[in-house]
Design brief:
mainly alpha, globular
Length: 178
């Protein structure tokens, strides 16, 4: 009985959503089919993105020693760490959820917390693939203005998050992965 309660607590949101979906499907069958189509499409997309990401992560974990990463992205990395975090995040490909395993590797290898946040923000906001699309679809003026706003925004956000997080929370995060 305890295991059933633990499972319910862990998956409470999912189970409630599923129950609501089942109830709604009695009134409108298309809601159920649309939900199943959307969910299956998202699962297929994730299955196409995550295996290459995991292979690349395994290679990065083996090929880049912890000391090397700490030198260039650790607490004493300075401007080099900032630029490297921006560069890695900007040249990355794939959706945002693909950045989370990379983030875990950066934490595991003791990258500076603000550099990790810069990396994640750059992945979202300054990707080169997005910039190339914006050049062609929205024009170079729009793309450059957005980029000029986003780069300082990425830096400000990362240092703001770093300041707002308690040292205990950051240490707990690092201890979790080491």
């Amino acid at each position: 009985m305890n295991t059933i309660i633990k499972i319910f607590k862990r998956y409470k949101s999912f189970l409630i959503s599923l129950l609501v979906l089942i109830i709604l499907s009695f009134f409108n069958k298309s809601i159920l089919t649309q939900t199943i189509n959307t969910a299956s499409s998202n699962i297929l997309q994730m299955l196409s993105v995550l295996p290459p990401v995991m292979i690349l992560l395994g290679l990065i974990d083996v090929w880049i020693p912890r000391e090397q990463l700490m030198k260039y992205m650790g607490n004493n990395s300075g401007i080099i760490g900032i630029l490297l975090a921006m560069l890695i995040g900007s040249v990355a490909a794939g959706p945002m959820y693909a950045s989370f395993p990379f983030t875990a590797v950066l934490i595991k290898k003791d990258a500076k917390f603000s550099n990790i946040i810069i990396f994640m923000n750059a992945w979202c906001l300054t990707k080169i693939s997005t910039l190339l699309f914006e050049f062609s679809a929205l024009g170079y003026k729009f793309a450059l203005v957005r980029l000029l706003i986003d780069i300082p925004g990425v830096l400000i956000m990362s240092y703001l998050v770093n300041l707002l997080m308690s040292k205990d929370s950051i240490n707990e995060l690092y201890n979790k992965y080491n």
